[in-house]
From TrEMBL:
Keyword list, A-Z: Isoprene biosynthesis, Membrane, Mitochondrion, Mitochondrion inner membrane, Transferase, Transmembrane, Transmembrane helix, Ubiquinone biosynthesis
GO MF annotation list: 4-hydroxybenzoate polyprenyltransferase activity
Classification via Gene3D superfamilies: UbiA prenyltransferase
Superkingdom of the organism of origin: Eukaryota
Compartments reported by the entry: Mitochondrion inner membrane
Descriptive protein name: 4-hydroxybenzoate polyprenyltransferase, mitochondrial
Species per Swiss-Prot/TrEMBL record: Stachybotrys chartarum (strain CBS 109288 / IBT 7711)
Entries under InterPro entries matching the protein: HB_polyprenyltransferase-like, Prenyltransferase, UbiA_prenyltransferase, UbiA_prenylTrfase_CS, UbiA_sf
Length: 401
């Protein structure tokens, strides 16, 4: 009997060769090379890339990897921030889980927060503020651990692609600071810690949570076979939009309204994930061509803002549908839906997709801007309904009498 996950893990440790695309790409008789001084790829170059037949070559051997690392700026140990306070032997592992770059953790956490706040008013009895806060803190702990595990899995799969990308070539596994075997062991430790957090929730959460591991492992592979790996990332990062309901005791299988709300909230977050990661992907678009990595930014480089606008419209519409199914009131529709529409519109209008720093700024801050207004609207709706609950209960008693 074969176990795919164990087999894949063994392949990572053994370094079984995988194919990758050519390092350079010939377009209209000349070679596109990536450097900090090179202009952004033009539309014709990207279209030519899509149409070209990229011949596979063997995976990087150690001399090739060493040569690429020599061409990159030398690694400098962190002198400031949280990483500088850690023992030197811990730093590569902290870098591996992006401890100093928590934006990904927040993006993983927000769907959990959304579903918790949406589920709280429809739980029977209505969830107390203490229960909501406790559940939220558990989700935050889980997001920190599982985001780190996801980054480690991603870097294990991408260890032969990362040296080709300026932003990633000095990651711990890519530069050799952590071996693939140690990275695999580290992944196991994080997954066990995540399981410990998951077991703190009601038992149904275990059955909803475990399947997400398949999505966590599949995203790095999606970059090799499709121009839409962001959709797979959305399926993964949005899973928390379902988890808040069983975490507060809402049975999705017996409550049609809750199931509808959870499904629409999940798809809304998928649209949000694809949107922000499309902006993120524009930071690496030149190096992605060089390394043969596929992304939605490459596929739709000529009409990115139109695609972003469509994703924003879908996100807000699906969010509104989720709120309607959950019985949300005006505070939610004005705060969460209206706020998301405005903040997403501003971001799409202002982001300069040709500027790496601007893309990064909107990726990091857009998380708090849009995620924040959605959370505030949901929290406001929960507060109003919680305050009104005693009056509603009295009316029900009178009607029964």
């Amino acid at each position: 009997m074969r176990f795919p996950v164990v087999s894949s893990a063994w392949r990572i440790c053994q370094g079984v060769p995988r194919h990758r695309a050519r390092v350079s790409l010939t377009v209209t008789g000349r070679t596109i090379r990536t450097s900090q001084n090179q202009p952004w790829l033009g539309r014709q170059q990207v279209l030519a890339f899509h149409q070209s037949q990229r011949q596979p070559s063997p995976v990087l051997d150690e001399p090739e990897k060493a040569q690429l690392l020599q061409q990159a700026p030398a690694y400098i140990a962190p002198k400031t921030g949280i990483l500088s306070a850690l023992p030197a032997s811990w730093v590569p592992y902290a870098e591996l889980i992006r401890l100093d770059k928590p934006a990904g953790t927040y993006y993983l956490f927000f769907p959990c927060l959304f579903s918790t706040l949406m589920a709280a008013p429809i739980a029977v009895p209505m969830a107390s503020p203490g229960s909501v806060i406790g559940t939220t803190l558990l989700f935050l702990s889980g997001a920190i651990i599982m985001r780190g595990a996801g980054c480690t899995i991603n870097d294990l799969w991408d260890r032969n692609l990362d040296p080709h990308v300026a932003r990633t070539r000095l990651r711990p596994i890519a530069r050799g600071a952590i071996t693939p075997f140690k990275g695999l062991v580290y992944t196991g430790v994080q997954l066990f810690a995540g399981l410990g957090i998951l077991l703190q929730f009601p038992l149904p959460c275990l059955f909803y949570g475990v399947p997400s591991l398949l999505l966590v492992a599949s995203y790095p592979l999606a970059k090799r076979v499709t121009y839409y790996p962001q959709f797979v990332l959305g399926l993964t990062f949005s899973w928390g939009a379902i988890m808040g309901f069983p975490a507060l005791g809402v049975d999705l299988l017996s409550n049609a309204a809750a199931l509808t709300a959870a499904g629409l909230l999940y798809t809304s977050n998928i649209a949000w994930t694809v949107l922000y990661d499309m902006i993120y992907a524009h930071m690496d678009i030149k190096d992605d061509v060089k390394a043969g990595i596929k992304s939605i930014a490459l596929k739709h480089d000529a009409e990115t803002k139109q695609v972003l606008s469509g994703l924003a419209a879908a996100q807000v519409a699906l969010l509104a549908g989720a709120g309607y199914a959950a019985g949300a009131g005006p505070v939610f529709f004005l705060g969460s839906c209206g706020g998301a529409l405005v903040t997403l519109g501003i971001m799409i209008r202002r982001v300069n997709l040709k500027n790496v720093k601007d893309c990064w700024w909107w990726f990091v801050n857009g998380c708090w801007i849009t995620g924040g207004v959605i959370s505030l609207g949901l929290a406001g709706d929960y507060a109003v309904r919680y305050i009104e609950e005693p009056q509603t209960a009295d009316v029900r008693k009178v009607e029964k009498a």
